[in-house]
Design brief:
This protein has 237 residues and is mostly helical. The chain is elongated and about 95 Å long. The relative contact order is 0.09.
């Protein structure tokens, strides 16, 4: 159906060119009829186009940012074996940055449908947004399954970058030792978001008991201590 519909814009442009060359009024009349017909055809796809744009008002910008992130990962020279492994996974999956960039461009073109003047001109002559909708569907069919893996990989790099930044700015912090036994033990444990000069650190161990009774007056630090345990448990994982 898509290729059948392409007959109309070809005929429209043909009639316009013929009119410019020959000034034949019949050609111009046919051109105007085909122009209106193209707008009617494009209007039939309006619901599908708007449904694609309803995902986000800034989907183009978001996708372009992802494309830039993936390009940096693809071109960086890593020393870490883990980061090299992630980079190779990305490279093997295809040109992720280029493909996401293509997707961003398709959404960018599709968003021009909200401009009434541009939409009338482009669709009346070329069925422009029908073209873009078809190419968007084709892109999704070929590459949609890879997007989740690409975004997860970006998430891994962001997480590792956050931990690296935390470690660099807090040289006194230690790396946890993970064991399979259900136990928790820490020395000089403090809340990572409390400034060092105000931080109160404590030793804690759940190796010999399953719970600890925590008492104290209001504003004495009970909640902060509980948050300290939770925060450090999350960071340890």
């Amino acid at each position: 159906w898509y290729y059948f519909l392409m007959i109309f814009p070809v005929a429209t442009i043909g009639c316009l060119l013929y009119y410019v060359v020959s000034e034949n009024e019949t050609a111009f009349s046919t051109f105007m009829k085909l122009f209106v017909l193209n707008l009617i055809i494009a209007g039939a796809f309006t619901k599908k186009i708007t449904s694609q744009l309803s995902v986000s008002t800034s989907v183009t910008k978001i996708l372009q940012n992802y494309s830039n992130q993936l390009r940096l990962i693809e071109k960086e020279s890593f020393l870490s074996h883990l980061l090299k492994t992630y980079q190779q996974e990305l490279i093997k999956s295809g040109n992720a940055s280029i493909l996401i960039g293509q997707l961003a461009s398709l959404f960018n073109y599709l968003e021009t449908v909200v401009n009434l003047v541009v939409s009338i001109f482009l669709n009346g002559l070329f069925l422009f947004h029908v073209h873009i909708l078809f190419r968007l569907g084709k892109w999704k069919k070929q590459h949609a399954e890879k997007i989740k893996d690409w975004l997860q990989l970006i998430g891994r790099f962001e997480a590792l970058g956050s931990f690296g930044n935390l470690s660099y700015n807090n040289t006194s912090f230690c790396f946890p030792e993970i064991k399979t036994a259900p136990a928790f033990q820490a020395s000089d444990l403090g809340h990572v978001l409390v400034k060092p000069e105000r931080r109160v650190c404590n030793d804690v161990s759940f190796n010999q008991q399953k719970f600890v009774i925590l008492t104290g007056s209001n504003m004495s630090g009970k909640s902060t201590f509980l948050r300290t345990l939770g925060t450090n448990l999350v960071l340890a994982k």
